[in-house]
């Protein structure tokens, strides 16, 4: 049986969207939109929203990448309606889910986070000018009903809510995850500088943000502070620094050993997850022990940064075929009606 391909019309509309957004971003036409996104959520600075948009344009909407990605799947013969509950921790966190729904041929009911409404609504308005039929397959709603399957992203607590109300539907539910870095002691200066991007991009609020580093025994952890200096400007961000001041005060009051500069505290902890402006570290003896440690916490880890893993500086640049929580969203969507 000949494989059915995702329509080229859909691919063309999405790549035209990439072209239009790139032009508008380059020419400053998105300045007002970026400002409105910041007013809605002060963690969405222009620096970080621009970065998120550029990653989408480069890695998700590039024509050749889209065609290669789409070639691995067949769209559904009987389109359904997919509810998408989007997270609001980083700009456009739910874009990849929406993109997969469109490529698979479904319709989408989107519930945006109140913290991230502006950017995604703007993108759909842009798409309406390019391909109204494709754009009209997306509707926004605060109340979800009349859908066939659901993709929902939230915290561990909200996952219980998802399961209670929506567990009877075919679903993908995602909860808290964090990312880690593995340091061997043989990293170059450039690699350690790039690690700063993995840690501080989006103020460390993303599931792909590195919240913990594994270091070999006798490694001088305090040396890492030197490589974080390029992000010293975060000290000018009030909400971030409120978190920094609070978390450092807690460490000091509880007499927890740590190192700190003006934007981050390093403290030893077994936990993968860390608070804003805090980076955990843990020592390992050898590769075997490290492998077992990573395996044990695999259910909490989104990605691993290091020489034999995701390259330093690449944590926030996932490719189209890198799925959150390692669940193939496209496979899920393309087999719903089978």
The CATH topology of the largest domain is Aldehyde Dehydrogenase, Chain A, domain 1
Instruction: Decide which structural class fits the backbone.
Output: alpha/beta
Strand content: 15-25%
Mean pLDDT: 95
Question: What is the molecular shape?
Answer: globular
Per DSSP, the total helix count is 12
Q: Judging by the overall fold, what is the CATH architecture of the largest domain?
A: 3-Layer(aba) Sandwich
Taken in chain order, the helices and strands follow as: HHHHEHEHHEEHEEHEHEEEHEH
Q: Which bin fits the share of residues in helices?
A: 25-40%
Give the strand order of the largest sheet, numbering strands 1, 2, ... along the chain.
8-9-10-7-6-11
Text of the CATH class of the largest domain: Alpha Beta
Task: Estimate nothing, just give the exact number of structural domains.
Answer: 2
Beginning-to-end CA distance, first to last residue: 15 Å
Write down the Rg. 21 Å
Largest sheet: 6 strands, mixed
Low-confidence stretches: none
Task: Outline the structure in words.
- The structure is a single chain.
- This protein has 338 residues and is an alpha/beta fold.
- It folds into 2 domains: 8-176, Aldehyde Dehydrogenase, Chain A, domain 1; 178-305, Aldehyde Dehydrogenase, Chain A, domain 2 (3-Layer(aba) Sandwich), CATH 3.40.309.
- 40% of the residues lie in helices and 15% in strands.
- The protein has a 6-stranded mixed beta sheet. A 5-stranded parallel beta sheet has the order 3-2-1-4-5, sandwiched between helices.
- Helix 1 (8-26) runs antiparallel to helix 3 and helix 1 (8-26) packs across helix 6 (118-130).
- The longest helix is centred in the N-terminal third of the chain and has 19 residues, at 8-26.
- The mean pLDDT is 95.
